[in-house]
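Hello Y.,

Per our agreement to keep a running log of every chain we model this quarter, I'm adding this entry. I've kept the format consistent with earlier entries: sequence first, then predicted structure.
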Amino acid sequence: MAEIQPFRGLRYNTKKVKLTEIITEPYDRITPGMQETYYKRNPYNIVRIILGKDDDPEHPERDKYKRAKIYIEEWEKKGILSKEIQKALYIYEQEFEVKGELKKRRGLIARVRLEEFNSKKVLPHEQTFPKHKEDRLKLLRATENNTEQVFLLYKDDDRRVQKAIEEALAKAELGAEVRDEDGFLHRLRVIMDMKAIQKIKKAMADKILIIADGHHRYETSLNYRHEALKETKKAKGDEPFEYIMMTLFDLNDTGLVILPTFRLVRGLEKLTEEGLQNLFAENFEINVVSWPGFSDRATLANIQKKVESERHTFAAYIARFKKFFIFHLKGEEILEKIEAQKPLVWKRLDVAILHSLLIDRLAAFTDKPFNLENNVSYIRNLEQGLKIVMDGEYDLIFLLKPCSLQQVREVVETGELMPHKSTDFFPKLKSGLVMNPLDE
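Predicted structure for the entry above:
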């Protein structure tokens, strides 16, 4: 079901630039401060393509999307970027640490045929917001290039794909090897042996794919494909716009890590301790723990441990009270209060419980419109999130445990979507290692 194809990747010439100076986090992870840092790091940094400044004093072109196209063309002419000499598949290896433990994982980068979600060949796993898709579509129209990767999962229980990849690696060339700011290793191997490529293609052919990260980019490519088909009178079905660059990981890979994404909430001008207790006491056992700040690391560690180890347990820090409120669901029968049409595996997700029974009900503490886009933000770094609350930018931060790969698999196989920002696969796939031009 997964049709993959080799492609002539567009890569940086490591004889002319240092990869450490040009790779970045994915566009949706780049803060304004990070964008500025990347700009200063190297004039050829990939950020100028994937997330250019709205007003860039370095370049006369005001439109950042057109500017991205110009940069690609100019850098190719200078030999900063160059296409692979022939079509290839790429193996992307990452080595990193999580809580002091060394992890490794291996993904396959290929062109993969775009499929509508109703085909059940490619499955989304979470909801998306439209504004990001509009931005990515403008970039794709301008550059005609998959400038970043989409992170996909597949089941390889019989290890046919892994065996084919391991055999192919014997003839693979080293394309890139670089350590990022965190010391994590990113390695790209290039497979050009056609027999090896055919073997991998055959092994992948029956796989159903689950989007782990990059939903906006995938849906953008679907929209781009629809536009291209309207303009192409005699489409053959094998045009480059029919495909998208993906990085595919085996669900059984022990290097797949999901971290929690904490929720910041603001706009709760009527929030009181008594009101909080009264609102949630019906569904949760509530414990209150005073916390003066980072001078008390032991209490913070105990709260984190409680959230991570106990079933359906959440913690909210409210700086104006200098207290953590710990919520423990009283019983699974309460899950019946969550959206009736959802399957039980979805209702059991901590992130679903958090939003349905806690965050959504915080609207009681404001007279203004309350919704996810305006009142809720997401952050992976807990200390940064706590500091944001302490500074008064947000009213509170919710701590929750991450969902598991098994939960993602179970929910997606029911045909449901995970709640927005419910998975944070770590680390991210670096941008700048390879791009997929759609001109051939």
